[in-house]
Amino acid sequence: MPRAALLAFLLLLGCDATQVEFELPPPEPELLPLAIGHTWIMQHQYNRRSGDAYVIDVDTLRITRDTLIQGKRWYYLETKGGPDEGFYTNRNNGVWYLEQDHASEPTPVLRYLSPARVGDAYGVPSEVGIDALPVMVANLDASHPIQQAPTYTGTLYALRYTNATVAPYIEHPFDVTVHHLLAPEVGFVVWEIATVGGNSVSYELLQFIPGDEG
Q1: 79 and which of 31, 85, 149, 186 could share a cystine (Cβ 3.0–4.6 Å)?
Q2: Virtual CA dihedral for 4, 7, 13, 15, nearest 10 degrees?
Q3: Architecture of domain 28-209
Q4: Of the candidates 189, 192, 191, the residue with the CA atom closest to the CA atom of residue 205
Q5: CA-based nearest residue to 98, from 123, 125, 136
Q6: 33-70, pLDDT tens digit by residue?
Q7: Is the CB of residue 207 less than 8 Å from the CB of residue 148?
Q8: Which tens digits make up the pLDDT trace of 4-22?
Q9: Which H, E and C letters describe the chain, residue by residue?
Q10: How far is CA 18 from CA 6, 23, 135, 198, in A?
Q11: Angstrom distance (rounded) from CA 127 to CA 2
């Protein structure tokens, strides 16, 4: 190809390239938003199988600090009950939790798979005296009415424990199911532990307050 034609061809390519606009897809909303100061006001209540509910207390979950662990930023969630207290981080396959076992080094574990499909299952560590079945994604469009906010729709996770004992308070093994409902960009909506008898204890979101960094 003559030099003049080659130069014209390259100039034509340059002109075409300047007219091409690349539109990046919007980022996936985080299932659990993490920033210092994020606060969840949760209503702690006891639910009887008859349908009656008794409010026990109003508890606060708050992200109080962050730290770098192996080059990844983790956020510390302080709780009084419900979701586990400790360090959380977001990865491309969901929300991870730093499992603290004093007998060994802290271990990152996948706590909430996201994105997910109904029926997806993944393992969790078994606790002392408790046999844990895999976490099951039970519903992608679960919803729960909140007293001070619109109804949030999110992903419902179910974790079943068998042969659970809480010595010295409960001596005989029993089965429990723990449900976690999380909504994108809001996080914790419901945390409920239910026994086979039909009664349950739950933490239900009253208000999500973004922190200054959110």
Answers
A1: 85
A2: -90
A3: Beta Barrel (2.40)
A4: 189
A5: 125
A6: 999 999 999 988 887 777 777 778 889 999 999 999 88
A7: yes
A8: 554 444 444 454 444 555 5
A9: CCHHHHHHHHHHHHHHHHHCCCCCCCCCCCCCCCCCCCEEEEEEEEECCCCCEEEEEEEEEEEEEEEEECCEEEEEEECCCCCCCEEEEEECCEEEEEECCCCCCCEEEEEEECCCCCCCEECCCCCCCCEECCEEEEEEEEEEEECCEEEEEEEEEEEEEEEEEECCCEEEEEEEEEEEEEECCCEEEEEEEEECCCCEEEEEEEEEECCCCC
A10: 19, 14, 49, 64
A11: 75
Residue 213 tokens, joined: 């960094």
Question: Residue 55 carries which side chain, given as an amino acid letter?
Answer: V
What six digits make up the tokens of 5?
């034609």
* Tokens at 136, concatenated: 């099951």
